[in-house]
């Protein structure tokens, strides 16, 4: 990796140079602690863009008062090494004051998918902080494309809606979930699972897959979702939700004809909260 930008001005100068050479630019926003899922976003960007900027910024506005912003893992040196190996062109790693300078007071208040009754039920302040920082990053980088993982599916829907509503020119692309060989969705939280919990955790992806197959075969959505919830609870999870939603709006659906449909699940296993989703 050739460059680390600490200021918006330096990043924009590089973007202007690349664009003057005819290059398309991708932005991959992250909060660091990079794993293979993040790196898959860089790989996916190459199909659309010549240059890739990965931002690393632990955004304070998406943490609630009961969430420990200070404890979020910060592994910048290791992250930069991973980005160099994969061939990212640059890293944007601003200080908090660069993103939120003194006197900053403007908010982005998302609606629609941000109020779907999924993750917002458990983290009511989260998506306002996400929308705020992503809107700023998209404007700061002025990239042609931005790439986000489908694992945080509600977040992706919120960002797509926000970018469209605010006429942000950057194309928003979702990248399929990267999974372990047994199907478990890749997540930094997986390291907190005990050996026994890790064996149990694969149940989420199996139930998603089995439920999707049932729905494609004509099963009733409400009945199939209730059966899925029972299986997840029987597998040792504390279920937060298992829902069939419209893939774009995240509105509830009663039949596949109302789709496209996405199945979404969140559940706790021991002290670890896992989320996953699957297209039907």
From TrEMBL:
GO terms for cellular component: cytosol. (R)-pantoate binds at residues 62, 155. The keyword Plastid does not apply. Pathway: Cofactor biosynthesis; (R)-pantothenate biosynthesis; (R)-pantothenate from (R)-pantoate and beta-alanine: step 1/1. Gene3D superfamilies: HUPs, Pantoate-beta-alanine ligase, C-terminal domain. It is found in: Cytoplasm. CDD domains: PanC. It is an enzyme of class 6 (ligase). Keywords: ATP-binding, Cytoplasm, Ligase, Nucleotide-binding, Pantothenate biosynthesis. One of its GO terms (molecular function) is ATP binding. It holds the Pfam family Pantoate_ligase. Its EC number is 6.3.2.1. GO terms for biological process: pantothenate biosynthetic process. It catalyses: (R)-pantoate + beta-alanine + ATP = (R)-pantothenate + AMP + diphosphate + H(+). The reaction proceeds by a bi uni uni bi ping pong mechanism. Homodimer. PANTHER family: CYTIDYLATE KINASE/PANTOATE-BETA-ALANINE LIGASE, PANTOATE--BETA-ALANINE LIGASE. HAMAP family: PanC. This is Pantothenate synthetase. It comes from Rhodoblastus sphagnicola.
